[in-house]
Write a structure and sequence with these properties.
By secondary structure, the protein is α/β, with parallel strands linked by helices. Helix content is 40%, strand content 20%. The protein has 10 helices and 12 strands. The longest helix has 22 residues.
Protein backbone atom coordinates (compact mmCIF):
# COMPACT_ATOMS: atom_id res chain seq x y z
CA UNK A 1 0.00 0.00 0.00
CA UNK A 2 1.26 3.50 -0.85
CA UNK A 3 2.10 5.91 1.96
CA UNK A 4 -0.08 8.61 0.43
CA UNK A 5 -2.91 9.05 -2.01
CA UNK A 6 -4.09 11.98 -4.11
CA UNK A 7 -7.62 12.68 -5.32
CA UNK A 8 -8.00 15.24 -8.11
CA UNK A 9 -11.54 16.51 -8.67
CA UNK A 10 -11.96 17.59 -12.27
CA UNK A 11 -14.54 19.63 -14.10
CA UNK A 12 -13.76 21.02 -17.57
CA UNK A 13 -10.17 21.89 -16.70
CA UNK A 14 -8.71 21.33 -20.15
CA UNK A 15 -4.97 20.83 -20.35
CA UNK A 16 -4.56 21.90 -16.72
CA UNK A 17 -5.76 18.50 -15.50
CA UNK A 18 -2.93 16.67 -17.26
CA UNK A 19 -0.39 19.15 -15.90
CA UNK A 20 -1.74 18.69 -12.40
CA UNK A 21 -1.58 14.90 -12.63
CA UNK A 22 1.91 15.05 -14.13
CA UNK A 23 3.12 17.19 -11.24
CA UNK A 24 1.68 14.78 -8.67
CA UNK A 25 3.25 11.77 -10.35
CA UNK A 26 6.57 13.59 -10.67
CA UNK A 27 6.79 14.23 -6.93
CA UNK A 28 8.26 10.95 -5.78
CA UNK A 29 9.52 12.45 -2.55
CA UNK A 30 7.09 10.42 -0.41
CA UNK A 31 7.15 7.29 -2.53
CA UNK A 32 4.65 6.15 -5.12
CA UNK A 33 1.28 7.86 -4.96
CA UNK A 34 -2.11 6.19 -5.16
CA UNK A 35 -3.75 8.58 -7.61
CA UNK A 36 -7.44 8.86 -8.51
CA UNK A 37 -9.16 11.44 -10.71
CA UNK A 38 -12.88 12.01 -10.16
CA UNK A 39 -14.54 13.67 -13.13
CA UNK A 40 -17.67 15.72 -12.51
CA UNK A 41 -19.23 15.06 -15.94
CA UNK A 42 -16.84 17.24 -17.94
CA UNK A 43 -17.77 18.13 -21.50
CA UNK A 44 -14.34 19.36 -22.62
CA UNK A 45 -11.24 17.43 -23.72
CA UNK A 46 -9.60 17.28 -20.28
CA UNK A 47 -10.04 13.51 -19.87
CA UNK A 48 -8.87 12.76 -23.39
CA UNK A 49 -5.71 14.80 -22.87
CA UNK A 50 -5.14 13.00 -19.59
CA UNK A 51 -5.68 9.56 -21.15
CA UNK A 52 -3.17 10.24 -23.90
CA UNK A 53 -0.47 11.34 -21.47
CA UNK A 54 -1.22 9.02 -18.54
CA UNK A 55 -3.33 6.05 -19.70
CA UNK A 56 -2.86 4.14 -16.43
CA UNK A 57 -4.31 6.80 -14.13
CA UNK A 58 -7.55 5.68 -12.48
CA UNK A 59 -10.48 7.89 -13.51
CA UNK A 60 -13.88 7.66 -11.82
CA UNK A 61 -16.79 8.95 -13.90
CA UNK A 62 -20.01 9.02 -11.85
CA UNK A 63 -21.93 10.45 -14.81
CA UNK A 64 -23.03 13.64 -13.09
CA UNK A 65 -21.58 16.76 -11.53
CA UNK A 66 -21.49 15.71 -7.89
CA UNK A 67 -19.93 18.89 -6.55
CA UNK A 68 -16.60 19.06 -4.76
CA UNK A 69 -17.51 17.36 -1.49
CA UNK A 70 -19.25 14.30 -2.93
CA UNK A 71 -16.56 13.85 -5.56
CA UNK A 72 -13.86 14.11 -2.89
CA UNK A 73 -15.56 11.46 -0.76
CA UNK A 74 -15.94 9.20 -3.78
CA UNK A 75 -12.27 9.50 -4.66
CA UNK A 76 -11.11 9.03 -1.08
CA UNK A 77 -13.22 5.88 -0.77
CA UNK A 78 -11.39 4.47 -3.80
CA UNK A 79 -7.99 4.82 -2.09
CA UNK A 80 -6.43 3.11 0.92
CA UNK A 81 -3.38 5.16 1.95
CA UNK A 82 -3.38 6.59 5.51
CA UNK A 83 -2.65 10.08 4.17
CA UNK A 84 -4.72 11.48 1.31
CA UNK A 85 -4.47 14.79 -0.51
CA UNK A 86 -7.48 16.35 -2.22
CA UNK A 87 -6.43 18.65 -5.04
CA UNK A 88 -7.94 21.06 -7.52
CA UNK A 89 -7.04 20.25 -11.14
CA UNK A 90 -5.81 23.77 -11.79
CA UNK A 91 -2.69 23.52 -9.66
CA UNK A 92 0.81 22.17 -10.17
CA UNK A 93 2.39 20.50 -7.18
CA UNK A 94 5.99 21.38 -6.41
CA UNK A 95 8.50 18.58 -6.03
CA UNK A 96 9.20 17.64 -2.42
CA UNK A 97 5.75 18.70 -1.28
CA UNK A 98 4.54 15.18 -0.51
CA UNK A 99 7.55 14.50 1.70
CA UNK A 100 7.15 17.80 3.54
CA UNK A 101 3.48 17.17 4.28
CA UNK A 102 4.06 13.55 5.26
CA UNK A 103 6.84 14.62 7.65
CA UNK A 104 4.48 17.13 9.23
CA UNK A 105 1.89 14.41 9.88
CA UNK A 106 4.53 11.94 11.10
CA UNK A 107 5.73 14.52 13.61
CA UNK A 108 2.29 15.29 15.01
CA UNK A 109 -0.08 12.35 15.64
CA UNK A 110 -2.88 14.76 16.49
CA UNK A 111 -2.75 16.53 13.15
CA UNK A 112 -5.90 16.00 11.09
CA UNK A 113 -5.33 18.27 8.09
CA UNK A 114 -2.59 20.40 6.59
CA UNK A 115 -2.14 22.59 3.56
CA UNK A 116 0.92 23.67 1.57
CA UNK A 117 1.88 27.12 0.45
CA UNK A 118 -0.09 28.17 -2.64
CA UNK A 119 1.20 30.76 -5.08
CA UNK A 120 -0.67 32.70 -7.74
CA UNK A 121 0.52 32.74 -11.37
CA UNK A 122 2.19 36.12 -10.74
CA UNK A 123 4.30 34.61 -7.97
CA UNK A 124 2.43 36.15 -5.06
CA UNK A 125 1.29 34.04 -2.13
CA UNK A 126 -2.37 33.03 -2.05
CA UNK A 127 -3.72 33.28 1.53
CA UNK A 128 -4.65 29.60 1.82
CA UNK A 129 -4.31 29.34 5.62
CA UNK A 130 -6.87 31.37 7.53
CA UNK A 131 -8.65 32.07 10.78
CA UNK A 132 -12.20 31.17 11.69
CA UNK A 133 -13.55 34.71 11.65
CA UNK A 134 -15.32 36.28 14.56
CA UNK A 135 -18.69 37.76 13.66
CA UNK A 136 -17.32 41.30 13.32
CA UNK A 137 -14.49 40.12 11.07
CA UNK A 138 -16.85 38.04 8.94
CA UNK A 139 -19.09 41.04 8.33
CA UNK A 140 -16.16 43.42 7.86
CA UNK A 141 -14.46 41.14 5.35
CA UNK A 142 -17.75 40.50 3.54
CA UNK A 143 -18.42 44.21 3.14
CA UNK A 144 -14.90 45.54 2.56
CA UNK A 145 -12.83 42.61 1.28
CA UNK A 146 -13.25 43.46 -2.39
CA UNK A 147 -13.07 47.26 -2.25
CA UNK A 148 -10.40 47.54 0.46
CA UNK A 149 -8.49 44.24 0.70
CA UNK A 150 -6.11 45.52 3.37
CA UNK A 151 -8.84 46.38 5.90
CA UNK A 152 -8.20 45.02 9.43
CA UNK A 153 -11.01 42.43 9.29
CA UNK A 154 -9.69 40.90 6.08
CA UNK A 155 -6.11 40.98 7.35
CA UNK A 156 -7.11 39.04 10.46
CA UNK A 157 -9.31 36.57 8.58
CA UNK A 158 -6.78 35.87 5.83
CA UNK A 159 -3.81 36.04 8.25
CA UNK A 160 -2.10 38.47 5.87
CA UNK A 161 0.43 39.55 8.50
CA UNK A 162 1.73 36.02 9.06
CA UNK A 163 5.06 35.05 7.50
CA UNK A 164 4.23 32.70 4.58
CA UNK A 165 7.62 31.00 4.99
CA UNK A 166 6.88 29.85 8.56
CA UNK A 167 4.82 26.78 9.43
CA UNK A 168 2.03 27.39 11.92
CA UNK A 169 -1.20 25.99 13.33
CA UNK A 170 -4.27 27.56 11.74
CA UNK A 171 -8.05 27.25 11.89
CA UNK A 172 -8.49 26.07 8.30
CA UNK A 173 -6.66 25.54 5.04
CA UNK A 174 -7.88 25.80 1.47
CA UNK A 175 -9.49 22.74 -0.05
CA UNK A 176 -7.63 23.50 -3.28
CA UNK A 177 -4.77 21.46 -1.82
CA UNK A 178 -5.41 19.79 1.51
CA UNK A 179 -3.72 16.74 3.02
CA UNK A 180 -5.90 14.70 5.37
CA UNK A 181 -5.22 11.95 7.86
CA UNK A 182 -7.65 9.21 6.91
CA UNK A 183 -8.34 8.30 10.54
CA UNK A 184 -9.31 11.90 11.31
CA UNK A 185 -11.45 12.17 8.20
CA UNK A 186 -13.26 8.95 9.08
CA UNK A 187 -13.80 10.19 12.63
CA UNK A 188 -15.84 13.19 11.41
CA UNK A 189 -17.65 11.40 8.60
CA UNK A 190 -15.75 12.84 5.66
CA UNK A 191 -16.65 15.93 3.66
CA UNK A 192 -20.16 17.31 4.13
CA UNK A 193 -21.90 16.52 0.84
CA UNK A 194 -24.50 19.21 1.50
CA UNK A 195 -22.00 21.68 0.03
CA UNK A 196 -21.79 21.75 -3.77
CA UNK A 197 -19.02 24.34 -4.06
CA UNK A 198 -17.26 26.63 -1.57
CA UNK A 199 -16.97 26.60 2.23
CA UNK A 200 -16.72 22.80 2.38
CA UNK A 201 -13.07 23.19 3.40
CA UNK A 202 -13.97 25.62 6.19
CA UNK A 203 -16.64 23.21 7.40
CA UNK A 204 -14.34 20.17 7.32
CA UNK A 205 -11.54 21.88 9.24
CA UNK A 206 -14.06 23.28 11.73
CA UNK A 207 -15.43 19.80 12.41
CA UNK A 208 -11.94 18.33 12.68
CA UNK A 209 -10.95 20.94 15.25
CA UNK A 210 -14.15 20.36 17.22
CA UNK A 211 -13.25 16.65 17.29
CA UNK A 212 -9.82 17.46 18.74
CA UNK A 213 -7.67 17.30 15.60
CA UNK A 214 -5.14 19.97 14.66
CA UNK A 215 -4.92 21.93 11.40
CA UNK A 216 -1.60 23.20 10.07
CA UNK A 217 -0.02 25.30 7.35
CA UNK A 218 3.16 23.71 5.99
CA UNK A 219 5.13 25.88 3.54
CA UNK A 220 7.61 23.05 2.95
CA UNK A 221 4.96 21.92 0.49
CA UNK A 222 4.09 24.28 -2.32
CA UNK A 223 1.89 24.46 -5.40
CA UNK A 224 1.11 26.91 -8.19
CA UNK A 225 -2.62 27.57 -8.30
CA UNK A 226 -4.58 28.98 -11.23
CA UNK A 227 -7.90 29.93 -9.66
CA UNK A 228 -11.38 29.76 -11.08
CA UNK A 229 -10.81 27.77 -14.30
CA UNK A 230 -13.93 25.64 -13.86
CA UNK A 231 -16.10 28.19 -12.10
CA UNK A 232 -15.64 30.80 -14.84
CA UNK A 233 -18.09 28.87 -17.03
CA UNK A 234 -20.99 29.50 -14.65
CA UNK A 235 -20.16 32.72 -12.76
CA UNK A 236 -23.64 33.58 -11.51
CA UNK A 237 -24.39 30.07 -10.33
CA UNK A 238 -21.07 30.07 -8.48
CA UNK A 239 -21.93 33.32 -6.72
CA UNK A 240 -25.25 31.84 -5.61
CA UNK A 241 -23.58 28.59 -4.51
CA UNK A 242 -20.99 30.51 -2.51
CA UNK A 243 -23.63 32.36 -0.54
CA UNK A 244 -25.79 29.26 -0.12
CA UNK A 245 -22.76 27.51 1.34
CA UNK A 246 -22.05 30.42 3.67
CA UNK A 247 -25.60 30.21 4.99
CA UNK A 248 -25.31 26.43 5.47
CA UNK A 249 -22.17 26.89 7.52
CA UNK A 250 -23.72 29.73 9.53
CA UNK A 251 -26.62 27.43 10.45
CA UNK A 252 -24.13 24.86 11.72
CA UNK A 253 -21.96 27.31 13.58
CA UNK A 254 -24.62 29.44 15.23
CA UNK A 255 -26.51 27.10 17.52
CA UNK A 256 -28.50 27.71 20.68
CA UNK A 257 -28.88 31.37 21.67
CA UNK A 258 -26.56 32.40 18.82
CA UNK A 259 -29.06 31.07 16.28
CA UNK A 260 -30.83 34.43 16.51
CA UNK A 261 -27.98 35.74 14.33
CA UNK A 262 -29.37 33.71 11.43
CA UNK A 263 -32.31 36.13 11.26
CA UNK A 264 -29.79 38.74 10.13
CA UNK A 265 -27.40 36.44 8.27
CA UNK A 266 -29.91 35.14 5.73
CA UNK A 267 -31.04 38.54 4.32
CA UNK A 268 -27.48 39.89 4.52
CA UNK A 269 -26.14 37.02 2.40
CA UNK A 270 -29.03 37.30 -0.05
CA UNK A 271 -28.39 41.01 -0.60
CA UNK A 272 -24.63 40.43 -0.85
CA UNK A 273 -25.16 37.76 -3.51
CA UNK A 274 -27.32 40.10 -5.59
CA UNK A 275 -24.72 42.88 -5.29
CA UNK A 276 -21.95 40.53 -6.46
CA UNK A 277 -24.02 39.30 -9.40
CA UNK A 278 -24.82 42.86 -10.49
CA UNK A 279 -21.20 43.95 -10.01
CA UNK A 280 -19.91 41.00 -12.04
CA UNK A 281 -22.40 41.76 -14.81
CA UNK A 282 -21.52 45.46 -14.93
CA UNK A 283 -17.82 44.71 -15.04
CA UNK A 284 -18.42 42.41 -17.98
CA UNK A 285 -15.77 40.02 -16.70
CA UNK A 286 -15.34 36.78 -18.70
CA UNK A 287 -13.39 35.09 -15.93
CA UNK A 288 -14.37 33.52 -12.64
CA UNK A 289 -16.43 35.56 -10.16
CA UNK A 290 -14.56 37.10 -7.27
CA UNK A 291 -16.55 35.51 -4.51
CA UNK A 292 -14.80 37.21 -1.66
CA UNK A 293 -13.24 34.18 0.00
Amino acid sequence: MSDWAAVVVNYNSGALLERCVASVLADGSAGAVELVVVDNDSSDDSLELLRRAHPDVVVLRPGANLGYSRASNLGIAATRAPLVAVLNPDLELGRGSAAALRARFDGDPGLGAAGPRLTNPDGSTYPSARSMPRLADAVGHGLLGRIRPSNPATRRYRQLDADPDVARPVDWVSGAAIWLRRAALDAVGGWDEGYFMYVEDVDLCWRLRRAGWGIAYEPGGHALHVQGVSTARHPYRMIVEHHRSLLRFARKRFQGPRSVLLVLAAPYLAVRAVVEIVTHALEGRPDAPRVGG
